[in-house]
From TrEMBL:
It comes from Mycteria americana (Wood stork). GO terms for molecular function: microtubule binding. GO terms for cellular component: acrosomal vesicle; axoneme; extracellular region; microtubule cytoskeleton; sperm principal piece. SUPFAM superfamilies: ARM repeat. GO terms for biological process: epithelial cilium movement involved in extracellular fluid movement; filopodium assembly; neuron projection extension; sperm axoneme assembly. Pfam families: Arm (PF00514). This is Sperm-associated antigen 6.
Length: 569
């Protein structure tokens, strides 16, 4: 056998390996092929014999190819593994159980940039599914290698490493961020998000809220990520900003670490970058920093984001709008002084315009921002009213179908109207009260009441009605509610009439002519209850014969007297 024939054997073997990894990588790129690849060990050859290579599984076949002498085969094998692991948590667990991660980590510091990008992709694909899979990446020492990759000369390697670190850092416990919302909205938006995004692998081990993020920080990633957002490559800026956001969201301490690395100034400079995807991540990162405390919010404000950030509310990209409104919300919620700064910069008017120009969940942070501002003080609430914020909030109650958006709008209207009779009147004249009452009645009687979101709507609308009604002295807006309100709402409505009627003769007359007094007599209240006390107070405003005349059954009494009356001739 000639030398050429001998070499052909090796060439054929190399071509076969190359063809195999390329084929698997291409197959793994199509979702319809994943199940077949995943169940390859059950594949049967046409002659009825089980294939020995299939019996060992595709993962175990790809694993030795990570150490192949041919770099292209190594890279393609890593790419195939990454695509498989990216598909679902079962395949990602198979990568972990197959002891593939240590091989990838060892090779990260030795191989070329193409392999590093592919290896980082595998780590990202595994770590994204669940906290324990991310923890497996940490345990195999990958963080240190990924941080080293952040210093690589190739922007693609930095981007891949940053992306992997972000997927590790973002994992959170199910209840970590419930404190972001006011209790009167009852965390409906965050709970809805938690229900939607929770899933995947059930944790076998409890982790602290930010253990994984802390591990990323301890590995020294933050200063290098801040350097990455200063690089000229837009894609690298996006991923680095996203990773900083994922680190910052968990706790004030982690957010402070990002701040101490000088991230705020660089992030603030990119708010008006023309790239929409970059702006999304920048605004998200600043929001995650600002949300934790007054001090952090003030540091974000000191970076002179106002009025620059208001331009984002008019952006053509819906996510830029939403993240911009979220940033303003996270600042406004802390103190009256920060809310006043937003008002002075034109932020309230800009948010109101944004709510009016968009639909769906994009509206939510703006709705909540108005509620936070109005909740702080009478003057700030009046600023929302003067800026014509009530009609858009009322429109959200009518137009939106998502329960958590309706709940947020109801809560915000309640915050606007709860301060003084003047505030409550401004809400009432917009015909908000019948809408809130109808929403409360519809949701309360709904078959979906067992759903948490529906319960939150009931709670939010009830609280909003109570807040507004307890201050509202504009009786024309209250009277229509007498006909439909349930007893727990009726007592607040009748209570307001009992406060106003004793001191207003015109209101007393109007209350009779419009049928209000008659309706009050028809209310069945328990003796000694607060509602009965209010009814008695109203009745004491009128002569006894007038009250008797409008009482149920009095017409029958009069007819009976007519029948029994003997004419005097």
């Amino acid at each position: 056998m000639s030398q050429r024939q001998v070499l052909q054997v090796f060439e054929q073997y190399q071509r076969a390996r190359t063809q195999f990894v390329q084929a698997v990588a291409e197959l793994a790129a199509r979702p319809q092929n994943i199940e077949t690849l995943q169940n390859a060990e059950n594949f049967c050859l046409p002659n009825g014999l089980f294939s020995s290579w299939c019996n060992s599984g595709v993962m175990s076949l790809l694993r030795p190819l990570l150490l192949d002498v041919v770099p292209t085969i190594q890279q393609t094998a890593a790419l195939a593994l990454g695509r498989l692991a990216n598909y679902n948590d079962d395949l990602a667990e198979a990568v972990v159980k197959g002891d593939i991660l240590p091989q990838l980590v060892c090779s990260l510091s030795e191989q070329n940039r193409f392999y590093k990008k592919a290896a980082a992709f595998v780590l990202r694909a595994v770590g994204k599914h669940s906290p324990q899979l991310a923890q497996a990446i940490v345990h195999c020492g990958a963080l240190e290698m990924l941080v080293i990759c952040l210093e690589d000369f190739d922007p693609g390697v930095k981007e891949a490493a940053s992306w992997a670190l972000g997927y590790i850092a973002r994992h959170n416990s199910a209840t970590a961020n419930l404190g972001d919302l006011p209790s009167s909205v009852t965390e409906s938006q965050e709970v809805s998000k938690m229900i939607t995004e929770s899933g995947g692998v059930i944790l076998k081990k409890d982790h602290s809220v930010h253990e994984l993020s802390q591990a990323v920080v301890d590995a020294g990633a933050v200063p290098l990520l801040v350097l990455c957002i200063q690089e000229p490559e837009i894609a690298l800026k996006r991923i680095a900003a996203s990773t900083l956001s994922d680190i910052s969201k968990h706790s004030p301490e982690l957010a402070q670490t990002v701040v101490d690395a000088g991230a705020i100034a660089h992030l603030a400079q990119m708010i008006l970058n023309p790239d929409a995807k970059l702006k999304r991540q920048v605004l998200s990162a600043l929001s995650q920093i600002a949300k934790h405390s007054v001090d952090l919010a003030e540091l974000v404000v000191e970076a002179e984001i106002f009025p620059v950030v208001l331009a984002c509310l008019k952006d053509s990209d819906e996510y830029v709008k939403k993240n911009g409104a979220t940033l303003i919300r996270e600042i406004a919620k802390h103190t009256p002084e920060l809310s006043q700064l937003i008002v002075n910069s034109g932020g309230v008017a800009a948010v109101i315009d944004c709510i009016g120009s968009c639909r769906g969940t994009v509206r939510l942070p703006g709705i909540m921002m108005l509620g936070y501002v109005a909740a702080h003080s009478e003057n700030l609430s009046m600023a929302v009213i003067v800026s014509k914020g009530i009609p858009p909030l009322c429109a959200c109650l009518i137009e939106e179908h998502e329960d958590h958006i309706k709940a947020a709008a109801a809560w915000a209207l309640g915050q606007v109207g709860r301060h003084t009779p003047e505030h409550a009147r401004a809400v009432a004249v917009a015909n908000v009260l019948p809408t809130l009452l109808a929403m409360y009645m519809d949701t309360r009687s709904s078959e979906d009441l067992q759903m948490k979101a529906s319960i939150f709507v009931v709670s939010a609308t009830k609280k909003a009605l109570k807040n507004i009604l307890q201050k509202c002295t504009y009786l024309p807006a209250l009277e229509p509610l007498l006909h439909d309100a349930p007893p727990n709402i009726m007592k607040h409505i009748v209570g307001q009439f009992s406060k106003v009627l004793p001191h207003d003769s015109k209101a007393r007359r109007l209350f009779v002519t419009t049928g209000g007094l008659k309706k009050v007599q028809e209310i069945k209240a328990e003796p000694g209850s607060l509602l009965q006390e209010y009814i008695n107070t109203i009745n004491n405003c009128y002569p006894e014969e007038i009250v008797r005349y409008y009482s149920p059954g009095y017409s029958e009494i009069l007819l009976e007297r007519v029948e029994n009356y003997r004419p005097v001739l």
